[in-house]
Amino acid sequence: MIIRSTAFIKSATHPGNYPEEERPEVAFAGRSNVGKSTLINTLVNRRGLVRTSSTPGRTQLLNFFDINGEFSLVDLPGYGFAKVPLAVKKAWGPMVRTYLERREQLRGVVVLFDIRRVPREEDLDLLDWLEEFEVPTIPVITKIDKVSRNRRAAQIGPILETTGLPLDAFTLFSALSKEGREEIWERIEEALHAPRKAETVAAKVVEGNEQ
Predict the structure, then answer these.
(1) In the chain, where does DSSP find H-type helix?
(2) What percent of the chain has pLDDT over 70?
(3) Residue 66: which H helix or E strand, with range?
(4) What is the spatial distance between Cα 63 and Cα 60, in angstroms, rounded to a whole number?
């Protein structure tokens, strides 16, 4: 992927203030401090496109970014940080679930897992929602430079067991060495060119409104 231009579009919390552009989108999701901002910045070769914070759980909005004027990357709010206020924690689920269910432009979600952490309930809920709404999933294991190569298999094993996903479903990523960057872009490009089942999305929205 050749990155010619990048720009922040806007932040949003609900469908009424999502960007109106029709271009396809790929979103990024994961626990607070899993490395979402770093991954996106590495992918687009721009250090400050997405702000990183030393305070996990700080990003609590859907942040939309234009790439090459052709598609968008969406940074979803992180979850699972203990010090985030209860009201914020409760808002995360409906905000993200609504986006996954209703955003017809969405072509896939890059789901991040820290190689040093076993996935927890919120991670599994996210995977369940993606399956429910038929959103293609691009699983990525981040921070692989934090463990030795000899320890990788032992650290990855619990992630595979907990998520039920095979090893070849994951891409291993390091922000330091850029390992995995090209593979992630290949999978993103594949998702961007795949048609979204808009009629399925519309049907689910109608069904949800009737309940």
Answers:
(1) 36-43, 86-102, 121-132, 149-163, 181-192, 198-210
(2) 82
(3) strand 62-67
(4) 9
